[in-house]
Design a protein that fits this description.
This protein is of the alpha/beta class and 305 residues long. Helix content is 29%, strand content 17%. It has eleven helices and twelve strands. The strands form three sheets. It has a five-stranded parallel beta sheet, sandwiched between helices. A five-stranded mixed beta sheet has the order 6-7-12-10-11. The longest helix has 20 residues. The protein is globular, with a radius of gyration of 22 Å.
Length: 305
């Protein structure tokens, strides 16, 4: 008996690996985790392709009733299907630990995820720093813990991958107060919203620094910082657009899922050779070679790649 955690990749039902498909077909119970990411097809398509019924594991089930998913693996094979790769979310790591603690054999089957696929923008993966999550702001809640990580990355010349918020099966608290259980429609953060919030976070950081005056240190980024927005990577209709942070607030990227990258302070010439094909038409961004920016007085370059 095995508890399989199977990565589905990023596109459709056919992105599962051969090994993953064989594991799924051997299972007595199959669950699909559907709140940390979404696939480009619905559950019916998956069931038809796998030839097996699938139970949707929503946020409540995964976080509060996880034992319903992994404990059946004491009696037979069970699969938890995860969009992308199994180890890109801490939720799945927690489930792996809990299953092993009760003596269940756990096997992970990896697949493509945004963590690697973002390289299709031209930005080289070993030039990335810490990944950050951008949550939806509300009127009374605007956390900007991601700002310090972006600042750290850019001071080291590193790019920042921003994972954008997803709200699935969120309770309607107004309805709950009236005694009804109602869930709000799903919401998926767009590159536009993320860009607007990043600009707002910059202003909040300024206020936190010294009461609203200009920052005494160089800001982590500005409205003119080069960024790349990406939507539906891994699918036939994927969309990639580069431009300044301010410019990305108005680009139509289409449907979910979206992610974005805040480029490091020094984009390499080879990265730019790929990125320039994605540059927004009419963009005000002007590329300056990293080597030109880092030339020393004696003509030596201080960069290496």
């Amino acid at each position: 008996m095995v508890f399989y955690i199977v990565g589905l990749g990023m596109g459709d039902e056919k992105d599962i690996t051969v090994r993953g498909l064989e594991a799924v077909k051997s299972c007595d119970a199959i669950f699909l985790e559907n709140y940390t990411s979404i696939l480009g097809v619905d559950t019916v398509k998956l069931e038809e392709f796998y030839g097996k019924p699938i139970t949707i594991a929503d946020r409540h089930m995964v976080e509060s009733e996880a034992e319903q998913i992994y404990l059946p693996a004491k009696e037979g094979n069970v699969a938890l299907l995860v969009v992308g790769d199994p180890v890109c979310a801490t939720t799945h790591t927690d489930m792996i630990i809990r299953a092993r603690d009760v003596g269940i054999k756990v096997e992970m089957i990896h697949n493509a995820s945004i963590m690697g696929a973002i390289g299709c923008t031209g930005l080289q993966l070993y030039n990335f720093g810490q990944t950050v999550s951008i949550p939806f702001f509300t009127e009374g809640w605007k956390p900007i813990s991601f700002y310090e990580k972006i600042d750290y990355n850019r001071r080291g010349g590193m790019h920042t991958l921003c994972l954008l918020d997803i709200k699935v099966k969120e309770p309607d608290f107004d309805a709950m107060m009236r005694g009804r259980t109602v869930f709000l429609p799903p919401r998926y953060m767009t590159v536009n919203t993320a860009s607007e919030q990043l600009l707002e976070a910059l202003e909040i950081a300024k206020e936190n620094e010294n009461g609203g005056d200009e920052l005494t240190l160089t800001p982590a980024y500005s409205e003119d910082t080069l960024c790349v927005g990406a939507a539906r990577l891994g699918r036939e209709d994927q969309c990639i657009v580069a431009g300044t942070l301010k410019e990305l607030t108005t680009v139509d990227f289409g449907g979910p899922l979206h992610s974005m990258v805040i480029c490091g302070s020094d984009v390499h010439d080879l990265e730019w050779e790929v990125m320039k094909s994605f540059l927004k038409e009419g963009s005000s961004y002007v590329f300056t070679s990293a080597e030109s920016k880092s030339k020393q007085p004696d003509g030596r370059s201080s960069i290496f790649l």
